[in-house]
Amino acid sequence: MIKKIILLLAILGPFGLYFLYSWLLKLQNKKIPILKLSLASVILLLIALGFLRFSAGFDPDTKYSPAKYEDGELKPAENK
Question: Which tens digit of pLDDT belongs to each residue from 41-52?
Fold first, then answer.
């Protein structure tokens, strides 16, 4: 869940900050710098994906065993 929140903030963050900035200052010029905001969003997205790639995960040599029923009980999935 935290991964989805980080990705959403990376994508929508610059646009939300610009909206908040323009709303607080009541700017007369209504031009939205969509190119700059999109570029900032892409850069933040790449940083967030890089962070998520290297911060969490399992060793490539781990073995995954799916959830299964044994003796009428559900055994959760494991990474060994």
Answer: 889 888 888 888
Please write the tens of the pLDDT for every residue from 22-76: 777 775 566 767 788 888 888 988 888 888 888 766 777 888 889 999 999 999 9
Looking at the chain, which runs of residues are DSSP E strands? 64-65, 68-70, 73-75, 78-79
Rounded Cα distance, 28 and 20, in Å: 14
pTM: 0.49
Instruction: List the domain boundaries for the chain.
Output: 2-79
Give me the amino acid identity at 79.
Answer: N
- Ranges of beta strands (E only) in 10-67 are 64-65
Please give the Cα distance from 3 to 48 (Å, whole number): 9
- From residue 58, give the alpha-carbon distance in Å to each of 4, 15, 43, 55, 76: 19, 34, 26, 10, 17
